[in-house]
């Protein structure tokens, strides 16, 4: 094979893949088609054996077994009625404070993130449950929709995050360390949102009116409402403790979570054959998509690296003489822009094999960078015009909430997320404190 410039290979492979995506081809087929064409053209028909070898190698990774279990757990809990009870609890606990219902919604988003592990679950669920309740009580529609979209994006960061499991698989990182690294930043972002809501509603109570006196409950009513937290709280604590403390592997903990979600649905008396079939079908469809993307992306990356093009980023960085921190910022900027056009799974499969070796060569902790990546994904999902959470919210919002309202609603929370990202860049110990405590530096 004649020597080909790594730059030409990079432009050819990624350009062809992006062109197919623009034309509407599924991500898996775009990656697979480009990988097959380039390997066949440059190495001949015998090179296609790499597809078989890489597929078997990927399926031999035990960590992938956690994905369907966590997806099943999230879907089962979402349809069991737990979200409705959690919102009712927060309404009783926080409703008497201006902005209190919004604060309670952020807390529920964090809880759903810990139950479901994906962004769309909390955004859609609370768009159906919490948004009408807040609008009925006089909440500003931009504040209400903005906090639900931002809170829903916490599903990327707060463990067990499906995106983090995929990242760990591709970057060969510890799932437990990634979960531990995302825990404190996730709570920090939720706290930033809460402070923002309380300040705005304190300055202008009409944005988030408190409950009327006749709708409030007494002290014992609030205590009784806490029972809604028992089942999901126990399940979340059990799963995360098993993973982070090392009692079980992530795959074993995911099985505990799946079994626990069935028990929760049975206790809520919502478990039946129809619901179980729907959850299993949804899990199967989502996992089918993820597995195809996984196999295609691994083959694509092996072809790319096998053509000696994987070093192009490092060569460009060396030639540019940029400070290492500016390289990190450039990568985060790429994530932010890609997130407006591609979903999180596509971005992690495309960029992790390229960026992680560069991060290691620059001397940065890859767990820290992984959390920066996830926070960038949160911001990208809210960024107009194509942020995914904007469209999730639009699909469930009432007609009086326009897409322009959602664009305006997202802007303050994007600024808050960027502020959180700056804090994580300036103070890496926010990310690393819990992993270092649990696993050592």
Give a written overview of the molecule:
By secondary structure, the protein is mostly helical. It has one domain. It contains 21 helices and no strands. It has helices at 6-22, 27-43, 49-59, 66-79, 82-94, 100-116, 119-136, 141-152, 162-171, 175-203, 219-225, 230-244, 250-267, 273-306, 312-320, 324-338, 344-361, 366-382, 388-396, 403-426, 429-439. The protein is globular. It starts with 5 loop residues before the first helix and ends with a helix.
Strand-helix topology:
Layout: H1 6-22, H2 27-43, H3 49-59, H4 66-79, H5 82-94, H6 100-116, H7 119-136, H8 141-152, H9 162-171, H10 175-203, H11 219-225, H12 230-244, H13 250-267, H14 273-306, H15 312-320, H16 324-338, H17 344-361, H18 366-382, H19 388-396, H20 403-426, H21 429-439
Helix pairs in contact: 1-2, 2-14, 3-14, 4-13, 4-14, 5-6, 6-7, 6-8, 6-10, 7-8, 7-19, 8-19, 8-20, 9-17, 10-18, 10-20, 10-21, 12-13, 14-17, 16-18, 18-20, 19-20
